[in-house]
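Page 42, continued from yesterday. The earlier attempt failed because a stray header line got pasted into the input along with the sequence. Redoing it now with the clean sequence only.
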Amino acid sequence: MTRYLRYFFLAAVAVVLIAVALANRGMVTLQLLPTEMAELLGIQRDVSLPLFIVIFGGIVVGLILGFVWEWLREHKHRAEAARKDREVRQLERELRRTRDERDKDKDEVLALLDRAG
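This time it went through. C-alpha cells are written below.
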C-alpha cells in the first residue's frame, strides 16, 4: 500500500514540475558576474536560459549544498560510531582470548557446553 502511495506522490510531483516548466519556458538572461568583474576577468558575464532551468537549477544546487552541509554536520556522529565499533571488536577479541585461556585445560565437550550456555 505504501508503495502505491509513494508512486502516486512521485507522479503528482512530476506533474507539478512539468506544469511549472511549461509555464516558464520564456528565455531569461542570467548575469553570472557583475559587469565590471566580468570585464576584468575577461569572461562571458551572462547566459540566456529558459526560466524553468534557472528555477530547477537553483533547487538542485540548494539540495546539493544541504546534503553536503548535513554530511559535514554528522561527521562527529559517524566518527563516534566508528570508535565504538572498534572498541566492541577489541572487547570481543579480548573475551574470546580470555575464554580460550580459561577453557584450555577443560575437556572439549565441556568447553563447548560452557560457550553454548
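Notes: The longest strand covers residues 27-31.
Reminder to self: strip header lines before submitting.
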